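From the shared-data thread, chain only:
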Amino acid sequence: MLDWEKVSGKLLDYTNVKGKYGKDAAVCAVIDDNYNIILEKRVQNEKDPWSGQVSFPGGHFEKNDIYIINTALRELKEETGINNIKILGGLEIQHPKNMPSLNVYPFLCYKEKFDKLIPQKDEIQYFFIPNIIELKEGVTNINMDGKTSPEKCFIYKNEIIWGMTARIIEKIKDLFKDH
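Structure, as tokens:
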């Protein structure tokens, strides 16, 4: 069994960080003892800048959240139905390439068992739960703003996980190199 306290010691503490409306967002990377992690496929929506992509549960800070950790927990519950997890700590703040001014706070969270996940119907097409250690690295060509560029990615079955989500996965995989 993994020593989650040891993993927590390698993470950042964002519990007292007050969020800024329009500037901050948070995601939850929920993992179990077998290194399985919850990912979601977003629905196609022309108003969503991450439409159809693979992501972690998460979203934008709202004024009632006060702290960025509350954003992460609210979005996790809204998108998956999960409301009882252990927050291990934070990873390095990320910035999406298509919205570089946005600060995204990734939280690594532990859940012993993934119960039935309930997708938020307007945002989530479906969930999938890969083993993060077994995700295969690759490169894919991504078209953004009319320009195509090669991007590092992870591949799981027919899913291509790229961008900020892939960068967060890379950070999580680094945590478990010696396990």
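The chain has a mean pLDDT of 91.
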